[in-house]
Amino acid sequence: MPRRTALLLMDLQVAHAPHLPDGYLPRAVRALHTARAAGVPVIHVALRLSEGHLDAHPRNKIFGALPSGRYTADDPGAAILPEVAPAEGETVVHKNRVSAFAGNNLRQILDAQGIEHLALAGVSTAGIVLSTALQAADLDYGVTVLSDACADTDPALHDAIVGQVLTRRPDVATSTVEEWARSLEAVA
For residue range 51-90, what is the model confidence (pLDDT) as tens digits? Predict the structure, then answer.
């Protein structure tokens, strides 16, 4: 029996758009359309901090340094990019640290739906993708990182994480969106 899979589309937010590599967004859109066509649940994960950044410790080098008001509910930059906006019925989960599991009930949502495998797409590879892949594997989920639907501002770092770091984990696979689409068709 195939494991129930969900696609996590992560940190695809308006504020990140200027930093996306050329040609990236169509691949993320393709991953989204592939999941929807195959009936794979889609969960959108976005960074959201509380008003006044009460959940961002000043010692935190990433979130503590953000200007007040950034990535809050009222920040237009925190919105999910329109090209990958959630469809009716798709879940949106907000996180307050790097991993998709941080500060929310993502694990409960996955477990309630019987999800056993996660396909990951998003930015950045060295941030949310790496953190989420490792944490998901530690939580006993199967993980497939959609290598061409993930991106980093440093392409060499992206390649090293996808091609060397993650491939050392027996519970983490890498795949292109096209390969993933074919694997979903084979199961159907």
Answer: 989 898 888 888 888 988 999 999 999 999 999 999 999 9
pLDDT bucket at 1, cuts 50 / 70 / 90: very low
Write the secondary structure of the chain as one string of H (helix), E (strand) and C (coil): CCCCEEEEEECCEHHHHHHCCCCHHHHHHHHHHHHHHHCCCEEEEEECCCHHHCCCCCCCCCCCCCCCCCCCCCCHHHCECHHHCCCCCCEEEEECCCCCCCCCCHHHHHHHCCCCEEEEEEECHHHHHHHHHHHHHHCCCEEEEEEEEEECCCHHHHHHHHHHHHHHCCCEEEECHHHHHHHHHHHC
Q: Where are the domains of the chain?
A: 5-46+79-187
CA distances from 110 to 37, 42, 115, 117 (A): 20, 11, 5, 9
Side chain identity at residue 49, one-letter code: L
First and final CA of the chain: distance in angstroms? Answer: 11
CATH, range 5-46+79-187: 3.40.50.850
Tens digit of pLDDT for each residue in 46-58?
Answer: 999 999 898 988 8
